[in-house]
Amino acid sequence: MQLPPKVTDRAFARLAEIGAGADGKALRVAVEGGGCSGFQYDIKLDDPAADDMIIAEGEERVIVDPVSLPFLSGAVIDFTDELIGARFTIENPNATSSCGCGTSFSM
After folding, report:
1. So what's the pLDDT on residue 12?
2. Are 77 and 7 in contact (CB under 8 A)?
3. What is the 3-state secondary structure (H, E, C) of the chain?
4. Residue 19: inside a domain
5. Residue 1 lies in a domain
6. Contact 104, 36 (CB under 8 A)
7. Under a CB-based contact definition with an 8 Å cutoff, are residues 71 and 39 in contact?
8. Is the Cα dihedral 86, 47, 10, 42 positive or negative?
9. Distance from CA of residue 48 to its chain's centroid?
10. What whole-number distance in Å separates Cα of residue 54 and Cα of residue 52?
11. How far apart are CA 12 and CA 31, in angstroms?
12. Cβ-contact 11, 88 below 8 angstroms
């Protein structure tokens, strides 16, 4: 069964801080082929497309395209702010392994 990704309150709060929703933008989370483990995440601010899945909280939105959705079933999209840097992260239960940087994974 395919579950939609979950977006944490921290991720929505960071989107509100940068004012993404006010500009009509959303955080796009996509999965592409490549990276050191076979697949990689592409995370960027983008305009929603008609066939995107939209996860919203107020003005802030996270979007996932239909091709990436099965790869992100049940995943948790979060925002972390650590000594090494601040970034959006994905905890993906479908990944069997991932690289050290967290942007590449295999299934």
Report:
1. 96
2. yes
3. CCCCCEECHHHHHHHHHHCCHHHCCEEEEEEEEECCCEEEEEEEEECCCCCCEEEEECCEEEEECCCCHHHHCCCEEEEEEECCEEEEEEECCCCCEECCCCCEEEC
4. yes
5. no
6. yes
7. yes
8. negative
9. 14
10. 6
11. 20
12. yes
The pair phi, psi for residue 2, each rounded to 5°, is -90, 120
Question: What is the number of domains present in the chain?
Answer: 1
Tens-level pLDDT at each residue, the chain (107 residues)? 788 999 999 999 999 999 888 888 999 999 988 766 678 889 999 999 999 999 999 899 999 999 999 999 999 999 999 888 899 999 999 877 666 655 655 66
* Phi, psi (degrees; rounded to nearest 5) at 89: -125, 160
pLDDT of residue 53: 94
Q: State both tokens at 3.
A: 């579950």
Give me the CATH number covering residue 74: 2.60.300.12
Domain that holds residue 51: 6-106
Is 51 a member of any domain? yes
One-letter amino acid of 33: G
Measure the CA–CA gap between 32 and 24, rounded to whole angstroms: 24
